[in-house]
Each structure stands twice: as C-alpha cells, then as structure tokens.
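user: Please review this fold.
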Amino acid sequence: MKQYSIGAIAKLTGLTVHNLRVWEKRHSAIETDRSDSGRRIYSESALERLKLLKSCVDNGFNIGTIAGMSNEELRDILQEFKSADEPTAKKPNLTVWAAGAEALRMIDQLEKPPFPIDKVTRFTDTDHLASAHNGGQPDMLVIEQASLSAAEAQNLGKLIKRINAPYVILLYRYSRQQDVSYLKSLGVQALKSPVDKTTFRDLTANLVEAPQGDPILVPIKQVPPRTFSDRALNKAAAMTSTIDCECPNHLSELIKSLVGFENYSAECESKDKESADLHHHIYLRTAQARAILEDLLQSVLDQEGIDLSRVNH
C-alpha cells in the first residue's frame, strides 16, 4: 500500500500543509501514521478522504461541520452537487395540496405552462387538511391562515413536519414575527397577504427551479462541543498578536457573546414549552455559529503559532 509524505499529500489534494495539520489536530478529520523519525505518513485511504473533504469545502461547507462525517456521507453530499450541475431533466408533474380559499385562488391562477401541475387536492382550511391527512405527501403545500397565534404556529409547524412536503408556502395576514420566524426555520416560504398574482407566481417558479436545501448550513441534531474554555477565550481577548492583528480579540469576544446566548436559548427551551421547538432551533443554530467562529479563531492562532495553553495572563 502506498504511503505519502505531507508534502506529497499537499500537492495531490491542493491543500496547504497548514490546512492538513489543522484538519488533523483541530478537527480530527483524518488519521495519520508516523515514520520512525516522527514525520506524518498518509495512506491511500487518507488521501481519498482528504480529497472528499476538500471537494466539500470547495462547495461551501465548513470543515468543522463535515469533519465527523463518514466517507459515504461526503460522497452523498458531492453527488447532490453533481446532480445540480447536470443538465436539468424534464420535471415530473407536480402534486399540490392547497388549504384555504386564498391558497386555492392563487394556485388556480398559475398558468399551466411553465408550472406542470398534475393534480390539486383542495382543503377548506388547515383543520380540514389535518383531519384528512392520512400519510400522503404532495410536492407542494400551500396554506392560507389569516392569523396565527403562538399555539397555532406550533400546531401548524407540527402539521407541516408531518406532511413533509418539499415546498411549503404560507399566506398569512396577522402574526407575531417570532412565530413567522419559527415557521421559516422549518423551510416555509411565508407571504404576508394580500399577495398579488405576480409575487406568488415568481416565488413558486423560484422554489420549483431552485435546488432543495441549503448546502452551507448543514442540518445539525446535536450541539457541537466547545473548543475554547472561558479562560482560553479571556487569554485570546487580552493578547496582542505578532502581526498587530486584533482578530483574536474580536473573535474571542464574539464567541463569548454566542456562548452566553447559547446558554440563554437553552434555558428558554426548557422554560417556554409553548415555543420549545423554536428555541431548540435557535439553540442549535447558535451553537453552530459559535463552532464556526471557534474554527476561525483556531485558524488565526495556528497561523501565528500561538498556543493559548502557554500564554500567561
């Protein structure tokens, strides 16, 4: 089996030696062996994995969010990008579920070309939709709900997750912004009524034509562990770097703020049962933002050769 030096791996992957060391030490993204003299040795399987990781990073992913994924998961991600780059095949006809008079009126006004709507299933309102749902799944779900209380938003969110349609549009008139934000966090496209025909048509066209999902914000189900303790962040905030750059100071202050808000949102999740789902989403995304900034801080420290464990403050 072939073995490669770090210099050879850098040339074969397009990664810098610095990147390779950070990916191994900071993210545990790859395993290496050591020669008798202590130099890193990379196997063929390590080379293959690094190429997969590099391709995902080139497509917009943060190394901190994908380092723990298996090679198979990385290949699945890259296959999605490959499919998106291939010539678009003719789209199959869409099945649409519409609940509410305004939702039905908007769907009926869509011209059949370029919208290949095959079948529209009609519901008088969301209560009718909830009671009639028996496990089916449409391509598009359009819902009209004139007003939304916090409890109604939570119930609607549960219904949307149960139906799990690829495209969801909500037409509403009155609602708290936090309730609309919660539904948007589930992938819902929310339009404040009255909605004109052109706006609805353009949104529908963009949804159907755009690739699904957001490749940058990888879905997460658990909170990334903290990289820096409070003491380490205080050290970084107080230091003056060797290149007169204040990035360690600013990044550490931002991370401390996010840690504080992360703890706050976790407390909100446990206290406010009515909107626990929304606060859990905020908690996870805040933790993800914190992990991204921790990765940036570590990169700055590595670039300047700073080891916080050896900094005395």
Summary: The beta strands are 3-4, 33-34, 40-43, 94-99, 117-123, 140-144, 147-148, 167-172, 174-175, 189-192.
